[in-house]
Each structure stands twice: as C-alpha cells, then as structure tokens.
Structure to design on (214 residues):
C-alpha cells in the first residue's frame, strides 16, 4: 500500500477500545473484584497492626491512665473508635458485647476496655472476603426488584 | 462517610444489594478509619515513652 495512505489507517495502538457490552462489563467486574480483594487484604493487615499497637500500650489499667493523662487525644480516640468498631462488626459479623457497645459509647472511662476488646477481636481475612463476596450483588435482580417496588408504589399511590 | 452512612452501606452489602463500587467504597472508608485510629494510638505511645524517659531521668 502506498505509504501516503498508510498513515491514515488506525495503528494497532489506536485500535478502538470496547467500553460497552457484556465483555467490557465482565472485565470491569473482574477489575473491581480484584481491587476489593486487595483492599480487604489491606484492611486485615491494618487491623492486625492496630491490634498489636493497642496491645503495646499495656493492660487496661495502663491504657486508662494514659487516656486520663492525655484528654485531648482520648477525645479523638473516642470519636474514632465507633467507626472502627462498626467496620469490624459489620465485616466480620461480630455482634453483641463491648465491641457493639463501642459504636454507641461516649464514655472515656469505658474507652480503655473497648480498646482492649478491639485488640482481642479476631478478624480473619477470609471473613472479610466472605463478607464482600458471599452474597454477590446481582445488579439485574436488584434493578428488577427496584422496578417492582416502584410499580407497587405507583399502584398504591 | 458518617457512621450512619457506613451502617446503611454495610447493611446493603450484607443484603447482597451493593455494587462492587459500593463494596470498595465501604472497605476504603473502613481502612481509613483504622489508619486514623492507628495515628492516635501512635501518639498515645509516644506520650507514654516520653513519660518513661522523664521518670528515668
């Protein structure tokens, strides 16, 4: 082919990218699942480090004394603990006990105990993966259910 | 993300109604919450070590 015309043909690098269709949807889904696995692994490692660091502060009495000596830090910890406790509770399915109470607590006196429980909670990465994967979302089913609910709402209205 | 929003998203994931993006968002938020708490625990540790050094002097 004439060199002059060749320059107007799309090169291999410029091949059109398929952004839609079942193949692209599958590829996006796989990528998202891969990212979820990485994030779940990081979450588990982060929790492990947090637990080791809490244990490094000492026993409940020592942590209690430390919190009393640092009231501003204690207030910050108090604000953050419920978020972490909630994440662990939801992700691992751990319910009841001090960890669940940590979500509601606003008491610095109880904080040392809550941290001890947090440090002792067992968080297995398999549990996290199971949480995000076991009941895999079926987008179509969800959309269909939403559509049915919308119809019902309209009919009732 | 507020506690309430995280709770709702967690329930949605547990019910199998969340998309992959929502699951990723939940995990990222959870991870950030742990990272933030670790920073405070590190500050408490630093304070404890400082106190120990002072008591030894």
């Amino acid at each position: 082919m004439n060199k002059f015309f060749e320059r107007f043909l799309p090169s291999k690098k410029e091949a059109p990218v398929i952004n839609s269709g079942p193949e692209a949807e599958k590829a996006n889904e796989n990528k998202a699942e891969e990212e979820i696995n990485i994030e779940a692994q990081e979450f588990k490692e982060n929790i492990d480090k947090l637990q080791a660091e809490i244990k490094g502060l000492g026993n409940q009495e020592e942590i209690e004394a430390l919190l009393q000596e640092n009231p501003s830090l204690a207030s910050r910890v108090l604000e953050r603990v419920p978020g972490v406790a909630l994440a662990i509770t939801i992700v691992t399915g751990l319910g009841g006990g001090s960890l669940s109470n940590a979500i509601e607590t606003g008491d610095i006196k109880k904080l040392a105990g809550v941290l001890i429980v947090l440090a002792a909670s067992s968080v297995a990465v398999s549990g996290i993966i199971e949480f995000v994967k076991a009941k895999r979302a079926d987008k179509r089913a969800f959309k269909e259910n939403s559509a049915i609910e919308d119809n019902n709402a309209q009919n009732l209205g | 993300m507020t506690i309430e929003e995280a709770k709702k998203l967690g329930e949605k994931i547990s019910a199998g109604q969340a998309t992959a993006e929502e699951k990723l968002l939940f995990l990222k938020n959870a991870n950030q919450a742990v990272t933030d708490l670790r920073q405070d625990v590190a500050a408490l540790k630093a304070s404890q070590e400082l106190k120990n050094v002072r008591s030894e002097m």
Observations:
- The interface with chain A takes residues 3, 6-7, 10-11, 13-21, 23-24, 27-31, 33-38, 40-45, 47-48, 51 of chain B (CB under 8 Å).
- The longest helix of chain B spans residues 20-56.
